[in-house]
Amino acid sequence: MRAAFAARLSEMYGQEVPAYTTLVDVSREVNEDVLREQGADAERLGSISRVTAERHGAIRVGTPQELQQVARIFGALGMHPVGFYDLREAAASAVPVISTAFRPVDGEELARNPFRVFTSMLTPADPRFFDADLRARLEAFLARRELFPPELLTLADRAAAERELPEDDAERFLQLAVRAFELSPEPVDRAWYETLERISAVAADIGGVRSTHINHLTPRVLDIDELYRRMTDRGIEMIDTIQGPPAWKGPDVLLRQTSFRALAEPRAMRTPDGAITSGALRVRFGEVEARGIALTREGRALYDELLGHLDEQASRSPAEARGDIARALWERHMPGSEQELAAEGLAYFTYRPADDRPRDGSGPPATVSELVQQGWVHAEPIVYEDFLPRSAAGIFQSNLSGEGTRDNDQEGTAYDAAWLSGAVGRDVLDPYALYAQQQNASLAQVSEQLGLNPPLPTGAS
């Protein structure tokens, strides 16, 4: 059901946003070229069939109740909320949302179909963006709308409880779920939309309409720099930068993202006198991603530290290309090989005994790094399945028509993963714990298969 939903959503979005189909075509071409050039190395972070089929979507909702309903729909597809992202703090402009990502968490499920949906919720209670009057009006508007029909939610609950649906019911679920994320033809109240747009284009996209929709659907590519060049060559306007780590000669880590710019899409508008006129809104764009190795908390701290140095050096040398500064920093401070990342505890790997391990009667060494170095064990990188709040905010900002407004003299409303868990009605999972669980399970298997006593230590953060 998850694979079918992702495929149907992709087909629907391609019909609504034709440039997305171009993006998918170019991504596939790049992936095929990389596979031809690199062979098996191209599949080190996932099989080509997984990478080619892989998508992540992005949606936006307005209330905890709507978010809870989204959780029920995605729960039917084996997708769980993972990670807490506060884009209010990650963005320089007004992006009044907090987010999580719904995705599979089991390794086998991820390998079968890793569809994930980055889901943002509006924060009307934050006085930096919304005064008391606008908050009251916004919350009343959101309370009056229905994003998801009861039939869809009932089928979702059945699918989650039974872990399947009969074929006819599954078909009905998929039809209703895809329809819920189509762009609505209902006229937009121009005055209300513009009221919110003065605060934030993101707020208007969420709270200025009576429905939700897919904001972008993201294919995965093996060479995002080459894709950027090819899309530009086709005359498609891309945003200015590729968000995330720089292109460099060392291992790919975390996530790199870019997109084509939001398109002006025709929308029906209702004027204050009730007349319907034609207009256009820029809210949807075409994002693409390249995924790397998941970093541990220590590795992520190093990444964030390098970003801080990058900001500082770029502000001192505005004429120097930001990418060149980043590349020099990475080559100076980031380990240049997977083996070094593993040895320093900066990234997550799964481990398995090598088929061609030493058979000379010697006993295996006692540490993971020595086991790898001496050929007893192979280390395989764990793919980063999650998101970077600063990169997500950067993509949002790059596609906004204005900066919006925020009153930083006001104290922001506090949200965290615990609050979000309560709002969504289920635990928001810690991505670090999920990666560590994968790594530790593999270390336990290595210890058992090699007869290590004491066993290899687990518990990486």
UniProtKB/TrEMBL annotation:
Gene3D superfamilies referenced in this protein's UniProt entry, alphabetically: Uncharacterised protein PF07063, DUF1338
Keyword field: Dioxygenase, Iron, Oxidoreductase
Cofactor needs: Fe(2+)
GO molecular function, one term: dioxygenase activity
Record's keyword annotation contains Iron: yes
EC supergroup of this enzyme: oxidoreductase
Keyword Mitochondrion (UniProt): no
EC number: 1.13.11.93
CDD domains, alphabetized: VOC_YdcJ_like
Family per similarity comment: Belongs to the 2-oxoadipate dioxygenase/decarboxylase family.
Protein name: 2-oxoadipate dioxygenase/decarboxylase
Organism, as annotated: Streptomyces flaveus
Taxonomic lineage of the native organism: Bacteria, Bacillati, Actinomycetota, Actinomycetes, Kitasatosporales
